[in-house]
Amino acid sequence: MQFEILDSLSLPADPAKANEDAFAAEREAAVVFDGATGLGEMLLPGPSDAAWIAQFGARRLMAHMRDGDAPEDALRHALADAEKSYCGLRRRPPKETYEIPFASMMFAAANGGGFEALWFGDCAALVLRPGEAVEIVGEAFDKRAAEARRVKMLAEAKGLAPAAGLSRAEYLPHLRAARNKVNSASGDWLFSPDARAVDHVSEQQVDAPAGTLVLLSTDGFLALASDYEAYDADGLIRTAQAKGLKALSGELRAIEAGDAEGRRFPRLKKSDDATAVLLRLT
User: Fold this and answer.
1) Strands (DSSP E) along 169-267, which ranges?
2) Measuring CA to CA, which residue among 127, 132, 103, 133 is closest to residue 240?
3) Alpha carbon distance 245, 217 (integer Å)
4) How many Å apart are CA 252 and CA 225, to the nearest integer?
5) Which of 16, 135, 212, 234 lies at a C-alpha separation of 20 to 30 Å from 172?
6) What residues contact 210, with CB distance under 8 A and at least 6 apart?
């Protein structure tokens, strides 16, 4: 099996700021990354530490796949590359975990039976086999629902609109405390400059015939279904095929503009970076 790349999109939340998502797609494999927005001082050169880890991860993961690595080996080597580069580029060692760059990821590597999926965090793969209902790979829908509940509770406790922003001083202590649990026994593991993360990646062999559609998505794009209820998962991938990802991104931003403070759909930012890749197995 191989992938046919039908469409792709990566849209920054704010055109004036760095896009902290990244993607790469080839016949043999495709991946989307969602860098976790920084909560403190930048330690790396470039527009943002989150953009660095997302772009670096996508680039190195696909380079190792081109070199002939098996998917998990490619991930292992990409994480080791990130660890080495981060240690060489950073201005100083991080004082707390929240200063380390992290990213969610959904990686799909085509094989004889369909594809192998490896993921961290709340990116997703929607799989539409001919004549069947959509399958959701990953835990993105559950994670997004839990995040919306947390944001609503935090905003109510602070007396602020939910989308008041990640930089609000009232939010930062809570957000940093949560980020400090990442890549530890008390939190989730994410793609990071830490080679140990490969031992904590989620994985699934997805059996699928030729003609199957696969939509890889970061949470910012998936919000059309997971957060904003504009589509269900089946409707989202079918509309992506029928209308294209650009048209869907226009719907996404229109919904967010109509709820700029996040009161109807609780979230920390008015808009998030949104990335998606639509593929067909051949």
Assistant:
1) 202-207, 213-217
2) 127
3) 11
4) 10
5) 16
6) 1, 281, 282
- Residue pair 245/278 in contact (Cβ under 8 Å)? The answer is yes
Predicted confidence (pLDDT) per residue in 74-90, tens digit: 999 999 999 999 999 99
List of residues 6+ apart from 231 with CB closer than 8 A: 224, 225, 239
Q: How far apart are CA 243 and CA 72, in angstroms?
A: 34
Q: Which two tokens stand for residue 85?
A: 């580069």
The phi and psi torsions of 252 (rounded to 5 degrees) equal -60, -50
The count of residues in the chain is: 282
Domain count, the chain: 1
Closest CA to 235 of 224, 227, 246, 219: 224
Question: Looking up tokens 């650009």, which residue turns up?
Answer: 246
- CB neighbourhood size of 255 (10 A): 18
**How far out from the chain centre does Cα 103 lie?**
7
Two structure tokens written together for 169: 């001083």
Domain range for residue 168?
3-281
Amino acid found at 261: E
Q: For position 168, which CATH number holds?
A: 3.60.40.10
Per-residue pLDDT tens for 251-277?
A: 999 999 999 888 898 888 899 999 999
Would you say 217 and 226 are in contact if contact means Cβ atoms under 8 Å apart? no
